[in-house]
Amino acid sequence: MIEQRSLLIRALKYSFPVFLGYVAIGIAFGLFTVERGYPWYLALITGIIMFAGAGQFIAVGLFAAGASLAEAVLVEFMVNARHMAYGLSMIRRFRSAGFYRFYLIFALTDETFALLSSLPATSADDNSPDGYKSEQVRRVRFMFLVSLLNHIYWNTGILIGALAGSIIPWDFHGVGFALTALFIVLMIEQILRIRRPAPFVISAFTAVAAVFLLPGALSGRFSLLSAMIMSLGFVQLFETSRTRSRPC
Predict the structure, then answer these.
(1) pTM of the full predicted structure?
(2) What is the four-CA torsion angle of 164, 152, 55, 198, rounded to 10 degrees?
(3) How large is the greatest C-alpha to C-alpha distance in the chain, in angstroms?
């Protein structure tokens, strides 16, 4: 019991930075969902079952705009494709997680991945196999607690925002920009990390061009998909030409 309490306290301290971000963005999502005409409990159900952060904002926005299920699935797949790389890189850490691994896979968000992938490798308490196994069990439980706490943080924010939005007569003007702000922050972080702004600049110009230059049928409901496809094509051409121009 004492050991479990110690693990919980460690997980709370370790995940506290995520708490600050998840509650704030979760409140914005709850307000955003209610503002789109959905009941407060649907926002919470979405957070519990889907738990996809930006993907939830996109899903609510698409369905509120009358997008088809196939269109929503395709957009969500493209937006969340990065999670395949997350999962592949965590295979070794989750291999010994037993039944916990199913939840760990489900709860692997960007922030949870950053926390879990930063954990040091398992080290034994002593030279015996039992010491190694006990350390593995503790780390699996710690990863589970961190993932569960992040899930709770997110849904706590959603519940606060959804209830507040359905009870208090809020002025929702500008709440929808939370999704745009979230992606801007993620983009800036990626630019600073990889120090290659060209793909992001190309994608931004392509998105603007897709809205103003494509025919009405494509620049309306399908502007997002059109911009994604065009951006991928132009970025690929840029990377190919960049690779060929390098001196041998």
Answers:
(1) 0.72
(2) 110
(3) 69
Q: Is 51 left (phi over 0), alpha (psi -120 to 50) or beta?
A: left
pLDDT in tens, 73-128: 888 887 787 788 788 888 888 988 889 999 999 999 988 988 898 887 654 434 44
- Token pair listed for 121: 């490798």
Question: What is the rounded radius of gyration, in angstroms, for the C-alpha atoms of the chain?
Answer: 21
**∠ CA 138-153-151 to the nearest 5 degrees?**
60
| Other residues' Cβ atoms within 10 Å of the Cβ of residue 117 | 12
Domain residue limits, the chain: 2-167, 197-248
Rounded CA separation 38/7 (Å): 38
Other beta carbons within 10 Å of 7: 17
Please list, residue by residue across 73-99, b when 16 or more beta carbons sit within 10 angstroms of its beta carbon and e when fewer do: eebbeebbeebeebeeebeebbeebee
CB-based contact 169:35 (threshold 8 Å):
no
CA separation for the pair 34, 60 (Å, rounded): 10
What one-character DSSP code corresponds to residue 121?
Answer: P
Q: Cβ(22)–Cβ(157) under 8 Å?
A: yes
